[in-house]
């Protein structure tokens, strides 16, 4: 099922949680809503689910208005961060709950419920826990129960709000791979809310990067990482090395020194050169566009990072660069930095 969000805005008193948001989700894809706290991603998810309503705008499922439907009529499965399982019910009954509460023409026979729940518990690989209660399960097992319960009603849309946020790092990685494989088996359109960029880039078919109630960029994981549309996306996705500059007459300057770098069409005024730390080479400090003093070099397993202090127009600033293991970078020495792959953004436009 396709989902279309058209011109949706939502305010909480003076706070604009969503500001004219437009989004198209294709049928059967897994889309991640990624952004910092307060960016509007959970509010958007709740509006799609029917748990909140927008002040303005439309939500359409397969082209039909979804805002005049109740939560139940939207046929949406919702998985919360903290599971929201019924403690007095065992695993089997937790998963069966959404089917047992159906009445009238929608009532599901007990035999069909047992078959459906058994199928789901097998699918999420916890059939052997059917008689246990939530208090007897690990965090990862509880999250699988929550997912099975959401899938029991055969939803056309699956919404996941920080589903792995309460789990430790190792369990999160295991469940991410498991969910990605599970999603490929299921004919369901899914939206995942997360502030964990690694989670979004690993799981999603497309990533929606949100900031301050607006969508900054929509693209594949490779697109948002390799070709960020805004300085916000570049800063938020992955690691970023920031080098303040100024554009004059279409050329980049550091102070009064012209740089042999492309201004990329940015208008005259303060600007920033943004690059991934691994896309910056070291060079002779007298020949490189930027140079500075090495403050410290740290090693974390296969990763080495250097703090480098660079003299700027508004005073010195410190950047962190990736250091190849074969490169000798003594503390206190001067080193030049040459961005090999970079983006230039106007400081005023991105403020």
Give the tags:
351 residues, alpha+beta, 6-stranded mixed beta sheet, 5-stranded antiparallel beta sheet, 9 helices, 20 strands, 25% helix, elongated
Which residues sit in consecutive blocks of at least 5 with pLDDT less than 50?
Answer: none
Shape: elongated
What would you report as the Rg, rounded to the nearest angstrom? 25 Å
Structural class: alpha+beta
User: What's the number of helices?
Assistant: 9
Strand order of the largest sheet: 6-7-8-3-9-10
How many strand elements? 20
Provide the β-strand percentage band: 25-35%
Distance between the termini: 38 Å
**For the residues shown, what is the average pLDDT?**
88
Helix content: 10-25%
Largest beta-sheet characterization: 6 strands, mixed
User: What is the H-and-E element order?
Assistant: EEEHEEHEHHHEHEHEEHHEEEEEEEEEE
